[in-house]
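User: My instructor asked us to take a sequence, write out its structure as tokens, and then describe one feature of it. I'm not sure where to start. Here is the sequence I was given:
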Amino acid sequence: MRDVLRFEPIYQDRVWGGRVLESTFGRTLPAERPIGESWEIVDRPEAQSIVKFGTHKGSTLRQLIEARAADIMGPKWPADRRFPLLVKWLDCRERLSLQVHPPAAAAAELGGEPKTENWYIAHSSADAKLLVGLQRGVTREQFERAIADNTLEQCIHQFRVAAGDSILVHSGQVHAIDAGNLILEIQQNSDTTYRVYDWGRVGLDGKPRQLHIDQSLRSILWDDFEPAPVRGAPTSGVIASCAEFTIRRLVLGTGERFSVHAEEQPRVLSVVSGSVRIGNENTSASRAPFGQVLACGENVLLPYAGAFTFSAASTSILLLTEDFCG
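Assistant: Let's start with the prediction itself. The structure tokens for your sequence are:
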């Protein structure tokens, strides 16, 4: 498996979505629809990434893993086990609902899936914020009263963000994304979300969106106070580390290179600023054609069996997601 796996995005209508993926990344979006999410890498029953270039063009991620699990995920990966991450862009034209994803124990009781996720801020308006965790000292009783009083926002920890910032949001942390953020979300392969509050908004059908107050109250971590983001910095380093994955930020100057070796682990490479070429003059064309460019906004899967070299076509920031096969 020598190909960098590049997939067709799957666009999702969301009441809070917009058209920023079009203006920022030069993509062609479905016309006149609020596109809130672009699922970049996904292996779920309801959504499958499809390879858009190369030897495996037209194959789904599920088909590739079933046929070549050892090459893509490593020799111990069962062919019927799904890819463990879901990678997506979020275009937040409006504020998202206040929500929570259940921790593993609550998920088992409620019939859902846990979801720890990392948000990397690619672009942010001047006054945009994130809402993550509780204000220090807020109790469950105060939280429930605030739901009834429509004062819940006062219970949630809020902070301003800028491009380059990121935060790891664990299952059980109550959270929302403010309007004006373009975010790369790298998460566990889950789509369980419990909405506890939606700011009085209606959905695309004109009706109030469903809330899941009981499930939310059973899922929230009541001792989770005021988590801090990782602020952007012009240096390489780890920006997220948890049991589910590790994310490293790579900052490359024009012409700088980095390589990944074969038979170490599969990885996800995300270009969040600039662009990179696959291969170099000393790499055979059969492995990685020199000059093939990954543009800003692309997210690709680097299979276990592949060895790849990347060269920055301009000053670039990349995210390398690893350690998700444990």
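For the description part of your assignment, you could build on this observation: Residues 275 and 295 are 5 Å apart (CA to CA). Try explaining in your own words what that tells you about the chain.
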